[in-house]
Write a structure and sequence with these properties.
Elements lengths: L4 H26 L6 E5 L8 H10 L14 H9 L4 E8 L5 E7 L2 E6 L3 E5 L4 E2 L11 E4 L7 H12 L1 H6 E6 L5 E5 L5 E5 L4 H18 L5 E5 L7 E4 L1
Parallel strand pairs: 1-3, 4-7, 7-8, 10-11
Antiparallel strand pairs: 2-3, 4-5, 5-6, 8-9, 9-10, 11-12
């Protein structure tokens, strides 16, 4: 009987490939994770520190460094990071060499509530705690404001953030007990009554027109109140 050596060689070679693949896979799974690398993406990288992110990873996996790859659940780590009220989004991934990396996008504050509690309103209209690491220069929100009802203050704060005139001049948003809104300007003492957020764009355009006209006439310091509550008119009260 003639032996087909080519067939035997093929079987041996195939077995060797399977063995090497299994060995490499087992070794890769047992490879220990190195110290995590944290990268902050986006414009804001001041509110939460590298140390805080590392601590979150450690607390939620009993220590990430020197943990075997096969025991690491990236979804658990991502959920832990996203649960932090400073973090908008987080992605955690693992390189072949065992390097654990986390990409962190922080929330962006657009207003700071200063009532019986102090916190930020972020650019999606949600609560964001103050940071011990950095203080954002954003308009204040005062008066009757609740954490679970930030809609009106957010709408006005977002408008201020997107409008160069408002960003330059408005330093405070006030909401009274009846949810009526007021603005305080940086250089002048008169109060701007917005009322509700209805027809907000029209009201802001009326404010700009009034401001430019009064600036030319040098009368801006003559007013105590500027009422924009009515869509098509500006009612001014002099001092």
């Amino acid at each position: 009987m003639r032996v087909n050596w080519n067939y035997i060689k093929l079987i041996v070679l195939l077995g060797l490939v399977v063995f090497l693949f299994a060995f490499a896979s087992d070794r890769n799974a047992r490879r220990e994770i190195s110290k995590p690398m944290v990268k902050f993406i986006g414009e804001n990288n001041l509110f939460i520190t590298y140390e805080t992110v590392s601590k979150l990873l450690i607390q939620n996996y009993g220590g990430v460094k020197n943990v075997p790859k096969e025991t690491l659940d990236l979804n658990v780590l991502e959920s832990a990071l996203k649960s932090n009220s400073m973090i908008k989004n987080a992605e955690v991934y693992l390189a072949v060499n065992g390097t654990l990396s986390a990409e962190i996008e922080q929330k962006t504050p657009i207003a700071r509530v200063s009532t019986n509690a102090s916190y930020y309103i972020d650019d999606e209209g949600f609560y964001m705690p103050l940071s011990t690491n950095y203080t954002a220069r954003v308009p204040l929100v005062t008066g009757y404001v609740e954490k679970n009802n930030l809609k009106n203050a957010y709408i006005v704060a977002h408008k201020i953030r997107e409008d160069e005139f408002l960003k330059k001049h408005v330093i405070e948003i006030h909401q009274d007990i009846n949810k009526k809104l007021y603005l305080k300007l940086r250089q002048y003492n008169f109060e701007v009554q917005l009322g509700t957020v209805n027809f907000l764009d029209k009201k802001i355009n009326n404010l700009k027109a009034f401001y430019q006209k009064s600036l030319k006439e040098n009368t801006l310091n003559s007013y105590r109140k500027v009422n924009l509550q009515f869509e098509n008119q500006v009612i001014c009260t002099k001092t």
